[in-house]
């Protein structure tokens, strides 16, 4: 029996390898609208967009991809000397796929800049490839703290990191929500553990009692975690991870009769959390995000115009990271509009960016981090995610 | 360290048993096919996935917005189970016809059948992710996303046991799962077709000489295995209300583990292995934290196999006595 088991283990490994291989093959997707077929002409530069465009977490990558596309289309419509074509790379959030796509983008497609990679895990692996090829890149959604500590010269992001987001959410949990006993769960991912630890650390300095646990986002049964939470009787729960896991956890918590306030970070800011948890169970859930999502009660004219243009073009409201995707692409377009046509020149111009974007004022510090660091709190109400306000000023009604 | 487990022993036990019952139902498919063909049907996890999809489709088609009650609820549940069972049993038989029988007829090695199983597994996953979920479930571009399923019954607490709330849906799942297994056990031990299955698993050559139609037995085996996985899929939807194209992967590995743990080829072993694995996972998570759940479960598997290489109840189908 034992040799049989060993053989089976090998078979499983082959199965996994095959799955990964398939994902890699299916990774490439066609360019978006506005593509110019005479791409080889020097009058057109190619900018990539990389992220999970068809996978489980594509709900938080398609909006920034649309935002970036909108920026490109608006730019091309002004008939500039050098036009821009956006090429999409579907990494399905898989680091291995992201690396091979980055190589394709550099060697075959000869991109001069890249918006992405969307997530932290894939960024960690794929950015070094871009760095070596000296391709400037701006992520609209990778929030892991450590990314800025690699000394990368061509890397930037337009969202504050988890080191900003985590403590801001923790301050809100201990402040506005007045929770003393908090249970923190993470999904063991690069992102989930990072933000979970940031929340844990800040809550402890605020004097709250913190209990913790971890879960597997691919699993469905979270009863052991739920039982732990039920016996800890917390005032608030924070989950570090993506919406698929958050929805399942939230549903099982409410079904067990746990009524503590449920908090999560930007990875859970998607309607999918309501669908997975069920609207009655999701009601009242609070989700923090460094992102600025246009709401129906918008007063800022610039944001209003962006939301209207976006809706006209894509037939949907701009969701998470749509404004950030637009701003990231705009930083590149401003550089190209200013006469930069090589990757190096674009990188230099992007580093000096200083303009009012849709999501925030866009300016980078030398490590590539954005200078503006606001974190916003959103809440599920009546099956919709609504903006509650800036975490430093928002209150729970 | 242990006070967490001791403090909420019953909640962990109940959740472990519910999950274990679902593991057990899926494990039956692995164990039966192994018993008859000496083949690990790796595509069985996708047969389970198809069961969840069919049940989810029923809930979607019924257009449920509020949980049902009374006869509507009973009808809805029956429809879910029937759809799940029928879809899974049908696809399991189709799978056998397309992926295994041609190989078996040509005398291909068991490894070839194993590769065919892996291929079928990937094929079915991608089929759902690329075609069926976007089109049949009308979710374009979201084939790989998790799908939420509407709540079909209110999850009311039925009674409390040692501080643990036992919900009506949990009782229903446990009773249904055990009921299915008892029926199967009777079928295999008391009927003519069951005798055929046992004979084939003991000695296929002699069984043929004794007038057993092997093709028919193999078909029935896949049918029953698929049926059990489909019912498990329906119960899974009832309990968790989510599914996706790759939902079977992790559960399939666990169910396969349960089958090996109980003694592969042994029907009662599958049930026992499932319940045992469900409990160990939850107790392990209680003591060491949920991140360690799988580590604990597989460590126990290795330990059990070290001392009982053929699993808890021993290897083959024929040894399961009435």
TrEMBL record, chain A:
Residues 1-23 form the signal peptide. Coiled coil: none annotated. It comes from the Bacteria. The keyword Signal applies. InterPro entries: BCAA_transport, Leu-bd, Peripla_BP_I. Keywords: Signal. Residues 44-383 form the Leucine-binding protein domain. This is Branched-chain amino acid ABC transporter substrate-binding protein. Belongs to the leucine-binding protein family. Transmembrane segments: none annotated. It comes from Sphaerisporangium album.
From TrEMBL, chain B:
Keywords: Amino-acid transport, Cell inner membrane, Cell membrane, Membrane, Transmembrane, Transmembrane helix, Transport. GO terms for biological process: D-alanine transmembrane transport; L-alanine transport; L-isoleucine import across plasma membrane. The keyword Oxidoreductase does not apply. Its main location: membrane. It is a multi-pass membrane protein. The keyword Cell inner membrane applies. It is found in: Cell membrane. GO terms for cellular component: plasma membrane. InterPro entries: ABC_transp_permease, BCAA_transport_permease. It comes from the Bacteria. The chain crosses the membrane at residues 20-40, 47-65, 71-90, 111-137, 171-188, 220-239, 245-264, 271-289, 295-314. One of its GO terms (molecular function) is L-leucine transmembrane transporter activity. Belongs to the binding-protein-dependent transport system permease family. LivHM subfamily. PANTHER family: BRANCHED-CHAIN AMINO ACID TRANSPORT SYSTEM PERMEASE PROTEIN LIVH (PTHR11795), HIGH-AFFINITY BRANCHED-CHAIN AMINO ACID TRANSPORT SYSTEM PERMEASE PROTEIN LIVH (PTHR11795:SF371). This is Branched-chain amino acid ABC transporter permease. It comes from Sphaerisporangium album.
């Amino acid at each position: 029996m034992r040799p049989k088991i060993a053989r089976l283990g090998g078979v499983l490994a082959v199965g996994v390898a095959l799955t990964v291989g398939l994902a890699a093959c299916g990774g490439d997707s066609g360019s978006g609208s506005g593509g110019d077929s005479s791409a080889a002409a020097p009058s057109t530069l190619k900018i990539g967009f990389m992220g999970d465009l068809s996978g489980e977490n594509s709900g938080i990558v398609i909006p920034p991809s649309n935002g970036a596309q909108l920026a490109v289309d608006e730019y091309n419509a002004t008939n500039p000397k050098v036009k821009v074509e956006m090429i999409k790379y579907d990494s399905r959030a898989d680091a291995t796929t992201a690396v091979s796509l980055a190589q394709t983008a550099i060697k075959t497609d000869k991109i001069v800049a890249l918006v992405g990679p969307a997530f932290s895990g894939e960024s960690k692996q794929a950015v070094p490839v871009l760095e070596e090829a000296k391709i400037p890149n701006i992520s609209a959604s990778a929030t892991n703290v450590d990314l800025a500590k690699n000394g990368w010269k061509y890397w930037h992001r337009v969202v504050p990191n988890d080191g900003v987001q985590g403590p801001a959410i923790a301050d809100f949990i201990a402040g506005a929500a007045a929770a003393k006993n908090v249970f923190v769960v993470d999904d063991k991912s690069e992102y989930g553990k990072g933000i979970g630890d940031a929340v844990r650390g800040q809550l402890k300095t605020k004097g709250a009692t913190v209990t913790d646990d971890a879960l597997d986002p691919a699993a469905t049964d979270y009863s052991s975690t739920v039982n732990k939470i039920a016996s800890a009787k917390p005032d608030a729960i924070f989950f570090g991870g993506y919406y698929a896991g958050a929805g399942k956890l939230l549903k099982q918590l409410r079904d067990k009769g746990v009524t503590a306030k449920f908090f999560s970070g930007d990875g859970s800011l998607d309607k999918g959390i309501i669908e997975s948890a069920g609207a009655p169970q999701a009601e009242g859930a609070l989700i923090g995000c460094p992102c600025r999502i246009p709401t129906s009660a918008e007063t800022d004219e610039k944001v209003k115009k962006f939301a209207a243009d976006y809706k006209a073009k894509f037939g949907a409201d701009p969701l998470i990271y749509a404004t950030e995707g637009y701003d990231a692409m705009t930083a590149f377009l401003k550089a190209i509009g200013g006469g930069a046509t090589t990757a190096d020149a674009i990188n230099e111009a992007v580093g000096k960016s200083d303009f009012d974007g849709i999501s925030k004022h866009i300016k980078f510090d030398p490590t590539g981090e954005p200078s503006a660091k606001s974190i916003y709190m959103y809440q599920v109400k009546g099956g919709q995610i609504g903006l509650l306000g800036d975490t430093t000023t928002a209150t729970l009604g | 360290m242990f006070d967490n487990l001791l403090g909420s022993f019953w909640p962990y036990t109940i959740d472990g048993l519910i999950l274990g019952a679902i593991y057990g139902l899926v494990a039956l498919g692995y164990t039966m096919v192994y018993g008859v063909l000496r083949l690990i049907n790796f595509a069985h996890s996708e047969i389970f996935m198809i069961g969840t999809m069919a049940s989810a489709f029923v809930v979607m088609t019924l257009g449920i917005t509020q949980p049902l009650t009374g006869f509507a609820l009973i009808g809805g549940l029956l429809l879910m189970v029937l759809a799940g069972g029928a879809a899974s049993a049908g696809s399991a038989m189709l799978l056998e016809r397309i992926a295994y029988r041609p190989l078996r007829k040509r005398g291909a090695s068991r490894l070839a059948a194993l590769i065919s199983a892996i291929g079928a597994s990937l094929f079915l996953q991608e089929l759902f992710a690329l075609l069926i979920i976007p089109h049949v479930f009308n979710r374009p571009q979201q084939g790989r996303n998790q799908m939420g399923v509407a709540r079909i019954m209110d999850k009311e607490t039925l009674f409390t046991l040692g501080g643990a709330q036992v919900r009506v849906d949990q009782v229903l799942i446990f009773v249904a799962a055990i009921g299915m297994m008892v029926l199967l056990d009777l079928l295999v031990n008391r009927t003519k077709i069951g005798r055929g299955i046992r004979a084939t698993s003991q000695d296929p050559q002699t069984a043929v000489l004794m007038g057993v139609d092997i093709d028919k037995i193999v078909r029935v085996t896949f049918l029953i295995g698929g049926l059990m996985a489909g019912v498990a899929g329906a119960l899974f939807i009832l309990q968790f209300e989510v599914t996706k194209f790759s939902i079977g992967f992790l559960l399939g590995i666990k169910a396969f583990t349960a089958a090996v743990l109980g003694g592969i080829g042994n029907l009662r072993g599958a049930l026992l292995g499932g319940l045992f694995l469900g409990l160990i996972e939850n107790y392990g998570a209680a003591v060491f934290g949920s991140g360690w759940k799988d580590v604990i479960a597989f460590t126990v598997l290795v330990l059990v196999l070290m001392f009982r290489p053929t699993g808890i109840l021993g290897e083959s189908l024929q040894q399961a006595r009435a």
